User: Fold this.
Amino acid sequence: MDRKAGYVRLVGGALALLLSCVAAPAYAACQRADVVVYGGTPGGIAAAIQAARLKKSVILLEPTRHVGGMLSSGLTKTDASPRKNVYGGIAAEFLKKAKARYRTSDPIRIYFESKWAEATFNVMLRSANVTVELEQRILKAARASTALTEITMVSGKSYCGTVFVDASYEGDLTLKSGAQTIVGRESRAKYGESAAGVQKLKRPEVDGSAILVDPYVVAGNRNSGLLPGVIDVGQKALGSADTSMMAFNYRLCVTDNADNRIPFTRPDSYDPLLYETTARFLQALKASGKGVDAAHFIGRGMTVNGKLDVNSTRYFSTNVWHIGYDYTTGTEAKREAIRTRVRNHITGLMWFAQSDPRVPSNVRQYMAKFGYCADEFTDNGGFPYQMYVRQARRLIGQVVLTQNNLVKKTPYSDTIGLGFYPMDEHGMIRTVLNGFIADESRESIGVGPYQIPYRAMLPKTSQVTNLIVPVALSASHAAFTSVRVEPTFMVLGQAAGAAAALAPKGRVSEVNINKLRSTLSAAGQILKF
Assistant:
């Protein structure tokens, strides 16, 4: 070998190695805590706080730049129980703070601002000495036998714990842990649930009258193709299993306060064809003699300080259908593309509502008064951070909570909290029935307070032994349409945090249930209605 050439290669290699070390962040092998919580949702926050209050070291990992999930992203009309003694513990603590701060008088709901929710959650986390790490999205998980040992993030950081809690809406840690999961809905026969599986298609109805909406790009011409948002599946077999999931949206925060308003503007991506179904729906309403409420697009969900919490309104709204499966199973790039699509749909809808001549003039005039709140989501143009992922992947755990358990109020020896909300399902399928648009989504089913067992948060012991899943928990699709509200997630999260603190050597299935229940009771959790 030529010595000079060899020397150059040696020096060049050393320099390249040095430069690579400078370019890439250098992290310690693993940040360790007794409890590692993935997902800064309200459920994850409750889990982290409860474990920390029981003197455990806790790291809370949030994939985005903001904690609080939906409660700090537009969902400011809480689905709190109108009855007493359902939501206790940390959920009640948070809601009590909101009630004291805003002094609202609604006997059913408690209102607050998203910016207040995020700030309050951060104060509660600091007070409990929880370490919060933002912008930490999971990449992979490592196990020793059936125990999780370490999770590695896209950032390059890694975290080790004795117990892990997956409080993400998507159940990503659960999937990467090797636990069994499901995406979609079960058949009616699977658990004997009347509300399971595919439901009967229905046309839009207003005041008991069906509204006929042509689904084709060229009205009446099937060969012209379907309008955006409509798929060609027709009526599938009733009660059959499929991968359909509830529609997603963002919960907007809007105001007509001129001093705090960012006007709705035409987005660069605006395409009127995306709202053709909406235009035809409004025209059909007019033709049938039905009036259109001026607040058709944003509702009248006034909260506090002149702000509205805007959810989907009936039929053609902020909801985007048929995206849940692709979002849940997709890469982060795919998910980001879907988030962008949903955001573009909503910003375009707000512009359509105030500018398109096919929208009744009273609606356009009303919408022109509103805009995004300038003092909310200030680093995101007044638009919420978190897409409303109403359902995603779910654990198939030691117990599967079903419709029958909710309706029949099954008692459990390992009850760790209560659920309350009706089995409320947003749109699943929008398709064509006999030449017109028809939707598949069932009516809400009231269930009242019901018990939730600890085992519904636990993977099977043959799969993972030190993971607790309070958000993407083990429930059928039908049951999950009730469990899926934030106060219930906080109840489950608090139970997960307590169990994580009490698990002997991290083995979550070996937690002493009596000790867990007494610990939760002492912390204010409601275990029996």
